[in-house]
Amino acid sequence: MNRYESFNRVEISRSALRHNLALCRQLAGAGCGIVAMVKADAYGHGMVECARILAAEGVETFGVAEVGEGVCLRRRGIGGEILVLAGTLPETIDALVEYDLTPVLLDGSLLDTLAERAARLDRQIRVQLKVDAGMGRLGCPPEEATEILRRIRALPRLRLQGVMAHFPMADDPGSDNTTRVRRRFDAMIRRVAGFLPPDCRLHIANSGGLFYGSGTGLDLVRPGIALYGCPPDGGVHGGGHGTERLRPVMRFVSRVIQVRSHPAGTGLGYGHIFTTSRPTRVAILPAGYEDGYLRSLSNRASVLIRGRRVPVIGRISMNLTMVDVTGLEGVCAGDEVVLLGRQGTEEITADEIASWMGTISYEVLCLLGNLNQRVYVE
């Protein structure tokens, strides 16, 4: 360990990412492309490095939220198509054109501006259209799609690359909402078919749509959380369609910095929200909410030391967490502690941490991945 590095680190497994990509491709089927979602710094896994790994495996299309993310990928040598999914404003158009990014249009308001800028720069801009088929968030209503697509077709500087929508409830395989949204999308596509170029790509499936069967059969799928090894439903429905074969890509580890013994009746940490009921050995870890290990995990979470689960006790503070190692022989300063991931035969998953936090695996991964030093391992 470099003496200037933190005791806390996030390990990102290249082989697990490759494995999950292969599983997504298998489910998508022959002829269906992958849009690898690398927005939000690849859900905390490192956008540039993950894009490089995926590109080396043949991925040709990436999804980001904002123009700045796409610019970052281009500047770091990432080729292929980069979809900007969370909207475009006039002040970002020059960067879109300069770095050959594909804006996902939410309505027709920017069509003339895009065409004018493209003409001025003597370029053609690839665009995709997002239709709100039931998400109730971004996109145009299905009944407005025909007119927008007609306008795109009339502007030679714009090239329609795809039409997309998004599932709001695909993480629940028992919901019929996903089927209704897919039918609405398919009906809209039939209505606008005459305005679509032969190479226009249609896509709607996120990880849930891919793994639970309602989003396949189109030209592209857009896996995100599944690429990083978490089941789309958070594991609450028992998985299915191969989710049990996903491999977590992220592991969060720390070190023991001190072990202390306390008698019964000792209050520990801020607020003394934990008081020992017996003689207790406490290991102290240099991780806290600054590192994404939130206060809501106080007195709820577990960590792994020497291949065993031990409970978090007392209030998690900015930089320190206490765990009860009573009965676990030999624990000493310097021992590895796993807060997320596997140690020996035991494992703590992002979904388990999410259940303790009262959130979802996406937030856990983003928090831990973006607030800690990352290292890449096979």
Overview of this protein structure:
By secondary structure, the chain is α/β, with parallel strands linked by helices. The chain has two domains: 32-232, Alpha-Beta Barrel (TIM Barrel); 250-377, Lyase, Ornithine Decarboxylase, Chain A, domain 1, CATH 2.40.37.10. The chain has eleven helices and 20 strands. Strands 1, 10, 11, 14, 15, 16, 17, 18, 19 and 20 form a ten-stranded mixed sheet that branches. Strand 7, helix 8 and strand 8 (201-205) form a beta-alpha-beta unit. The longest helix has 16 residues, at 177-192. The radius of gyration is 24 Å and the shape is elongated. It starts with 8 loop residues before the first strand and ends with a strand. The model has no long low-confidence stretch (mean pLDDT 95).
CATH superfamily assignment of the largest domain?
A: Alanine racemase
CATH class of the largest domain: Alpha Beta
Radius of gyration: 24 Å
Our count of domains comes out at: 2
**Proper CATH architecture of the largest domain:** Alpha-Beta Barrel
Query: In this structure, how is the largest beta sheet organized?
Result: 10 strands, mixed
